Every structure is written in structure tokens, then in C-alpha cells.
């Protein structure tokens, strides 16, 4: 069943943290990777997970990152979200040089600027669904408690799980937990939503509805970057970027873009 999502930006765009160094102007891209390399140093030697990645993503749209296990997909997302830093190269998101953020500045930037959705949901088990969605708002502390409550309710309603708000996450189905996690990711109204195999733990029908939801968020103006092993993701994505051995080996329009009017879904 398709869920209809209507998102209104509730807050002004967050100010860039002062620790961020703006990169030279480079067009209208929301996200820019320039010659990004990531090397993991391990006891048995170095592991080159990304080898000179260049990528530019515009504002709005659904971008799928695909590729075999070990090709560097999660590494790319960790760098995009400032969870980790590249060994070389530059990453810019909405004018912020995220490769230059240290751990503290990265966490502060992430809170307002990126929503992250995980394969295993990573909801806090001791908090209710409603409290899980409220938490990022409380951490950011941008608006009064009453507004936070209203926004959390609105998000859960849009995800179709408002009636689950007072349950603990373990009392929800996998699909409902992932919808809660998406609501949480949207709590601070970030322009960028990043999901690493969000359907990897769901049955195929539930997976489809979660991907449809991400599609609707992209239609509502979010930039959604999703790592997935779903074979027919091109049907929903505007763009499919394929990684192999740490390199982008193809970057193509999704099939919906190839159909006149782009309304194949
Ligand atoms: N923390 C780490 N330390 C050392 N090597 C790592 C680390 N994280 C990832 N790697 C290596 O980097 C490469 C890319 O890993 P990454 O997790 O990005 O792959 P992936 O495409 O997300 O794979 P999967 O589809 O299995 O999730 C792999 O060879 C992996 O073993
Ligand atoms: Mg991965």
C-alpha cells in the first residue's frame, strides 16, 4: 500500500558550523566528492576502500548506490555523513567542507543537516516510538517542546504509524520500525537523507513500501542517497551509481527517468 507523504520544511536551513571551511564554488550540487580516497589501516596492512571518487549530486532526488559487497558503499556513506573522514580528497555538502570537520563539529553538523537510516533501524529500545523521534529534536534544541511534540506526531502520521507512537520499538513490525527510523531521520528537517541498506532486514513487500516512501521524500524535495541490493531500484531511482573495488564504474539515469514524464512509479 502506498503512503502519501507531504512534507513542509518546518525550519529555516541550518547555519553552517563555524569549523567548516567552504570549498571553492563548484556549481549547484548539494553534494560534491572530489578525488576522494579512503584507506583503512589494519594490523595486516592497508585496505584501500575508495580510490579517487568524484561525484556530484543535485538538490532533490533519489540516488541509489549499488555494487558488490566490499565495493565501498558504506564507506562512501560514512564519509558523506562525516561519520568518518577521507584519507585524501574533499567532500562538500551544502557548502560545508565535511571532510574538514573533526568528530565534534561533524556530530554537530550531522544533527541538523543529515538524516541517517540504518539496516537494523537502531532505534533506542528503552524509548517509545514517539520519544525516538523527539530525541534528535531535543539534542538540537531548536524549538520549544510543544512544537517538537507536534512535529513528531506529524512525522509519525505521515509515515503511517501515529497509532504506534506510545509503543516500544520491539512491539513494532520491521516495516513499522523502519518507518519510525525514517521519521527520526526527518526530525530536524535535514535536506539530505542517507540510508544504508534500509530494506536489508525487511520482506520484499515491506521493502517495496519503504523504498516508495523514500521516493516520495525525494519528490518532496529531499536529496535521498540509498545504498541497496534491491535489483530493480532503477525503477524508483533518478540515478544509479555503481561502485566496484572502490571506484565508480557507472553512473546512469534510473529507468523512471527514461520514461516520458518520469512517472513510471
Ligand atoms: N573499519 C574498517 N577497517 C578496515 N577495513 C574496512 C573497514 N570498513 C570497511 N573496510 C573494508 O573496506 C572495503 C569496503 O567496505 P564497505 O563496508 O564500504 O563495503 P560495502 O560496499 O558497504 O559492502 P557490503 O555490501 O557488504 O555492506 C572492504 O574491503 C572492507 O573490508
Ligand atoms: Mg555496507
Short précis:
With 265 residues, the chain is α/β, with parallel strands linked by helices. It contains seven helices and ten strands. Magnesium ion binds at residues 73-74, 196.
Protein described:
The chain has 265 residues and is of the alpha/beta class. The protein has a domain of 172 residues: Rossmann fold (3-Layer(aba) Sandwich). The protein is 29% helix and 25% strand. The protein has a six-stranded mixed sheet. A four-stranded antiparallel sheet has the order 2-1-4-5, covered by helices on one side. Helix 3 crosses helix 4, helix 4 packs across helix 5 and helix 5 packs parallel to helix 6. The structure holds adenosine-5'-triphosphate and magnesium ion. The site of adenosine-5'-triphosphate has 12 residues, from strand 1, strand 2 and helix 1.
Secondary structure layout:
Layout: E1 31-42, E2 45-57, E3 61-66, H1 73-80, E4 88-93, E5 96-97, H2 103-113, E6 114-117, H3 129-140, H4 145-158, H5 174-185, E7 192-196, H6 204-219, E8 223-227, E9 239-244, E10 247-253, H7 255-258
Parallel strand pairs: 3-8, 3-9, 6-7, 7-8
Antiparallel strand pairs: 1-2, 1-4, 4-5, 9-10
The protein binds adenosine-5'-triphosphate and magnesium ion.
Adenosine-5'-triphosphate binds at residues 40, 42, 47, 49, 67, 69-75.
Stretches where pLDDT is under 50 for at least 5 consecutive residues are: 1-5, 7-27
- Return the structural class: alpha/beta
Q: Please, how many helices?
A: 7
Ligands, ions, cofactors: adenosine-5'-triphosphate, magnesium ion
User: Gap between N and C termini, in Å?
Assistant: 13 Å
Cα Rg: 18 Å
Number of strands: 10
Amino acid at each position: 500500500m502506498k503512503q502519501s507523504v507531504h512534507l513542509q520544511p518546518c525550519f529555516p536551513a541550518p547555519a553552517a558550523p563555524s569549523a567548516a571551511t567552504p570549498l571553492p564554488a563548484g556549481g549547484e550540487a548539494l553534494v560534491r566528492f572530489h578525488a576522494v580516497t579512503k584507506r583503512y589501516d589494519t594490523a595486516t596492512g592497508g585496505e584501500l576502500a575508495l580510490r579517487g571518487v568524484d561525484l556530484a549530486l543535485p538538490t532533490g532526488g533519489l540516488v541509489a548506490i549499488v555494487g558488490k559487497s566490499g565495493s565501498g558503499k558504506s564507506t562512501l556513506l560514512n564519509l558523506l555523513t562525516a561519520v568518518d573522514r577521507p584519507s585524501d580528497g574533499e567532500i562538500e555538502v551544502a557548502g560545508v567542507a565535511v571532510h574538514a570537520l573533526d568528530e565534534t563539529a561533524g556530530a554537530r553538523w550531522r544533527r541538523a543537516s543529515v538524516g541517517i537510516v540504518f539496516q537494523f533501524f537502531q532505534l533506542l529500545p528503552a524509548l517509545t516510538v514517539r520519544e525516538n523521534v523527539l530525541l534528535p529534536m531535543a539534542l538540537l534544541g531548536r524549538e520549544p517542546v510543544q512544537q517538537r511534540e507536534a512535529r513528531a506526531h506529524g512525522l509519525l502520521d505521515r509515515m503511517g504509524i501515529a497509532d504506534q507512537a506510545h509503543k516500544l520499538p520491539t512491539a513494532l513490525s520491521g516495516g513499522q520500525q523502519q518507518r519510525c527510523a525514517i521519521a527520526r531521520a526527518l526530525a530536524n528537517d535535514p535536506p539530505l537523507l542517507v540510508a544504508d541498506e534500509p530494506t536489508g532486514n525487511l520482506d520484499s513487500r515491506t521493502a517495496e513500501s519503504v523504498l516508495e516512501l523514500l521516493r516520495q521524500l525525494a519528490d518532496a524535495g529531499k536529496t535521498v542517497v540509498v545504498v541497496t541490493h534491491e535489483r530493480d531500484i532503477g525503477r524508483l531511482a533518478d540515478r544509479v551509481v555503481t561502485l566496484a573495488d572502490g571506484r565508480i564504474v557507472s553512473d546512469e539515469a534510473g529507468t523512471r527517468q527514461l520514461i516520458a514524464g518520469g512517472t513510471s512509479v
